């Protein structure tokens, strides 16, 4: 504690006293009995009070002003821990540290006790969180809408290298950041029947089942606390939580059946959908939160404007991927059936209000639902979709008579594998703008998945390259580098990301390089501690930290990285006297529960790590670590410590990426394909300051068209065949020598993700990286230039572009 004769500054003393009051009167704990979690909750509630004061003042100032709002609908919001983010954005970090120190508590004690809110799977959810923070920082009035999952993305445990999934329990002890809003409760229907007059647009839907959506609000405070928006998350409840007649008759389980069925909607993020019941639950989730969000939007619209006809003037609804695409049909249903608009007017309002962000070119990731499931679960919506489709196809016939292929391609109902509703098509037709998330991705959208739609609507597809919130991914997770940047560039770098370009003039400054390297070394030492704690692997912070952190998927090609690791290991064993660059290979990421091949890749990485790390022949010059249960909090330690950033997806398959931005901003050099936003990063940083390799997107398409077989690349490579033989032969799986035969066979065959095609090029790029790392001065120069080139990739820039070019809302700064 602070010595008795020390007087705290007034603001710090006020915060300290507020923390004590929260601890005493909200938690009912004396200081002497408080545990770390108690200190976190008390501090969070004190910080939340400061946010609330600003929010209420903001509401009072805006009372009577009909400002246009943005409504961002996303099934994922990967917000992570909020204590440090909120304190940082309010300018309370030092006050909070001093206040807690006076109470004998460190900031880290309180922060580490906060659960990591895993309300997302990866880049999609983290992007949504960054975008909400930027909307607040730019003072754009906005709501985020999603689901308050009882259990977010699963907790990953590795048992002998095999991924095991366990419930993630972030809400076990409540969420001090949220406000329950039981007054905002909307009844969402499923199933039932539809009746109506054939001569009228309007119909009456009588659902057979009802579920209540109850709102919980999480404040999202912008930079310097100047504006606060809300993330409104919906919790599912049964209208009648207990059938008392059944309970009293002895059917205690049956009495709760309706409650269990209703609450399953907000129980788990991404329940497995490889069964009919799983598919139904996914659809219920998507409609549930979308319907509640739109009911909330229209309630606010009627209160402020008195009519839904002007909705497009007051609201911009952004669909983050296809998960909320049912919004097109739901908004039409509300406008026509509930508010009495004529069909044509409702369609004008709907398309004028909604816009859609596409995040993938992979056909399997563009959602579609069986028609029979939609007709059973959402019968009125299927009627609306049929009518939208009929009018849409009539328009296509008028423009392109006799083109049956085009009609089939752009129909909202696909017929290829059973009749299915194409949700990406629905979102496209019902939106005034459709955007990709990198220049390459947007161009490929026009050429591939939406080529026929682009032919019909040549001005609808636009590009909005993703960005990241620098407040989280620089200021918070890398305070050492932030302090150095402020010293070098002045405090304006905290408000203007473009100021980073001025670092280019310091890239050759030996003194600045030294300070920059010292920050990196401290971050690597912190990561080394985490690696040892979580994996038992001891690593040298002086080694090259080669990092690949992202969702485990074949197109992201963790497998390519593992194959190169095996090649390096075998080369070190074969040439022990060579002067090797020490390397630590760091992997982290989760595989979808039903994705067997992704889980097999995790197991292979773990098996390789076990063999390599125990082999005295490599003298510790190569270490491999797979960090389990990757989440935002882990990323905040890994990202600042990375030397080499693996962005090695098959060209043309990564829509954008944001991990690539976070790592380069913090001084990691990228080894990657020209895919997603890495293309634009190379333009801003300089191609010569990245390690680029592999086929281009066009070359990948050509190889696939000609019937590519991996055996061709294996035969042409001096190294790859031996690597695959070792894996297939059980060198890394002596307990089961057949474990990876199917995996290797897939590489020798079609090799859809071009792992074998890019292997030799990747091997050469890795050699270049290891060689450069030994040139300390040049590596540091390039690291500085990477940071200098990343200012454009702020999510503030992304959101400014959305605001001006899609949403038509003003930006304050």
From TrEMBL:
<dbReference type="Pfam" id="PF00343">
    <property type="entry name" value="Phosphorylase"/>
</dbReference>
<keyword id="KW-0963">Cytoplasm</keyword>
<dbReference type="GO" id="GO:0008184">
    <property type="term" value="F:glycogen phosphorylase activity"/>
</dbReference>
<dbReference type="GO" id="GO:0005980">
    <property type="term" value="P:glycogen catabolic process"/>
</dbReference>
<keyword id="KW-0808">Transferase</keyword>
<dbReference type="InterPro" id="IPR035090">
    <property type="entry name" value="Pyridoxal_P_attach_site"/>
</dbReference>
<keyword id="KW-0663">Pyridoxal phosphate</keyword>
<keyword id="KW-0021">Allosteric enzyme</keyword>
<keyword id="KW-0328">Glycosyltransferase</keyword>
<dbReference type="GO" id="GO:0030170">
    <property type="term" value="F:pyridoxal phosphate binding"/>
</dbReference>
<comment type="function">
    <text>Phosphorylase is an important allosteric enzyme in carbohydrate metabolism. Enzymes from different sources differ in their regulatory mechanisms and in their natural substrates. However, all known phosphorylases share catalytic and structural properties.</text>
</comment>
<dbReference type="InterPro" id="IPR000811">
    <property type="entry name" value="Glyco_trans_35"/>
</dbReference>
<dbReference type="GO" id="GO:0005737">
    <property type="term" value="C:cytoplasm"/>
</dbReference>
<dbReference type="InterPro" id="IPR011833">
    <property type="entry name" value="Glycg_phsphrylas"/>
</dbReference>
<feature type="modified residue" description="N6-(pyridoxal phosphate)lysine">
    <location>
        <position position="662"/>
    </location>
</feature>
<comment type="function">
    <text>Allosteric enzyme that catalyzes the rate-limiting step in glycogen catabolism, the phosphorolytic cleavage of glycogen to produce glucose-1-phosphate, and plays a central role in maintaining cellular and organismal glucose homeostasis.</text>
</comment>
<comment type="similarity">
    <text>Belongs to the glycogen phosphorylase family.</text>
</comment>
<protein>
    <recommendedName>
        <fullName>Alpha-1,4 glucan phosphorylase</fullName>
        <ecNumber>2.4.1.1</ecNumber>
    </recommendedName>
</protein>
<keyword id="KW-0119">Carbohydrate metabolism</keyword>
């Amino acid at each position: 504690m602070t010595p008795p004769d020390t007087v705290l500054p007034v603001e710090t003393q006020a915060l300290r006293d507020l923390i004590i009051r929260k601890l005493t009167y909200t938690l009912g704990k004396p200081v002497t009995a408080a545990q770390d979690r108690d200190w976190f909750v008390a501090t969070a509630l004190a910080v939340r009070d400061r946010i609330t004061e600003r929010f209420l003042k903001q509401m009072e100032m805006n009372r009577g002003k009909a400002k246009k709002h943005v409504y961002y609908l996303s099934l994922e919001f990967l917000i992570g821990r909020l204590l440090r983010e909120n304190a940082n954005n309010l300018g309370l970090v030092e006050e909070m540290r001093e206040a807690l120190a006076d109470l004998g508590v460190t900031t880290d004690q309180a922060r580490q006790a906060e659960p990591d809110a895993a309300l997302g799977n990866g880049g999609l959810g983290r992007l949504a969180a960054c975008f909400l923070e930027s909307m607040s920082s730019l003072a754009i009035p906005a709501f985020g809408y999603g689901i308050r999952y009882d259990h977010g993305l699963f907790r990953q445990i590795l048992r002998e290298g095999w991924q095991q999934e366990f419930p993630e329990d972030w809400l076990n002890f409540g969420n001090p950041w949220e406000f329950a809003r039981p007054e905002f409760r909307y009844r969402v229907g499923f199933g039932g029947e539809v009746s109506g007059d054939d001569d009228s647009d309007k119909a009456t839907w009588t659902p057979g089942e009802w579920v209540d959506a109850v709102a919980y609000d999480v404040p999202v405070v912008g930079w310097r606390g100047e504006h606060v928006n809300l993330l409104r998350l919906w919790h599912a409840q049964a209208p009648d939580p207990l059938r008392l007649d059944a309970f009293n008759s002895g059917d205690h389980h049956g009495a709760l059946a309706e409650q269990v069925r209703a609450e399953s909607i907000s129980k788990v993020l991404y329940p497995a959908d490889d069964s009919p019941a799983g598919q139904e639950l996914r659809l219920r989730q998507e409609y549930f939160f979308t319907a509640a969000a739109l009911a909330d939007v229209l309630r606010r619209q009627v209160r402020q404007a008195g009519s839904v006809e002007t909705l497009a003037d007051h609201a911009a609804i952004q669909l983050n991927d296809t998960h909320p695409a049912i919004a097109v049909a739901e908004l039409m249903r509300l406008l026509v059936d509930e508010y009495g608009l004529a069909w044509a007017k409702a369609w004008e309002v709907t398309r004028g209000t909604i816009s859609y962000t596409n995040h993938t070119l992979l056909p399997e990731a563009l959602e579609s639902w069986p028609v029979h499931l939609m007709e059973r679960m959402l019968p009125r919506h299927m009627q609306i979709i049929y009518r939208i489709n009929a009018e849409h196809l009539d328009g296509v016939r008028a423009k392109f008579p006799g083109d049956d292929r085009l009609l089939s391609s752009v129909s909202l109902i696909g017929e290829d594998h059973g009749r299915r509703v194409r949700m990406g098509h629905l979102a496209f037709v019902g939106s005034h703008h459709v955007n990709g998330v990198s220049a390459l991705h947007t161009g490929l959208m026009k050429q591939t998945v939406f080529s026929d739609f682009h032919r019909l609507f040549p001005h609808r597809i636009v590009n909005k390259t993703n960005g990241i919130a620098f407040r989280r991914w620089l200021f918070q997770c890398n305070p050492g580098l932030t302090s150095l940047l402020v010293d070098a560039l002045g405090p304006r770098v905290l408000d203007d990301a473009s100021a980073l370009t001025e670092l280019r003039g310091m890239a050759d400054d030996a003194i600045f390089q030294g300070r920059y390297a010292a920050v990196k070394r401290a971050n690597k030492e912190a990561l080394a501690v985490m690696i040892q704690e979580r994996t038992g692997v001891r690593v040298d912070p002086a080694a090259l930290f080669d990092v690949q952190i992202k969702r485990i998927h074949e197109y992201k090609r963790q497998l390519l990285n593992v194959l190169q690791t095996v090649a390096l290991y075998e080369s070190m064993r074969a040439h022990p006297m060579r002067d090797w660059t020490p390397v630590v290979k760091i992997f982290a990421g989760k595989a979808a529960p039903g994705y067997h091949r992704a889980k097999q890749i995790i197991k292979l990485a773990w098996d390789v790590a076990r063999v390599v790390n125990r082999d005295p022949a490599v003298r510790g010059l190569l270490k491999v670590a797979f960090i389990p249960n990757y989440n935002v909090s882990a990323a905040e330690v890994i990202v600042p410590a990375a030397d080499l950033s693996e962005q090695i997806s098959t060209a043309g398959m990564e829509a954008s990426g944001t991990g690539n931005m976070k790592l380069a901003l913090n001084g990691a050099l990228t080894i990657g394909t020209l895919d997603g936003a890495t293309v634009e990063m190379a333009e801003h940083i300089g191609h010569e300051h990245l390690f680029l390799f592999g086929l281009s997107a066009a070359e990948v398409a050509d190889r696939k068209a000609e019937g590519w077989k991996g055996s061709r690349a294996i035969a042409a490579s001096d190294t790859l065949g031996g690597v695959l033989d070792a894996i297939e032969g059980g060198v890394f799986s002596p307990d089961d020598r057949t474990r990876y035969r199917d995996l290797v066979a897939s590489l020798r065959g079609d090799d859809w993700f071009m792992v074998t095609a890019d292997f030799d090029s990747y091997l050469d790029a890795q050699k270049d990286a290891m060689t450069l790392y030994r040139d300390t001065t040049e590596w540091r120069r390039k690291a500085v230039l990477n940071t200098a080139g990343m200012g454009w990739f702020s999510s503030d820039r992304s959101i400014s572009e959305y605001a001006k070019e899609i949403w038509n809302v003003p930006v304050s700064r």
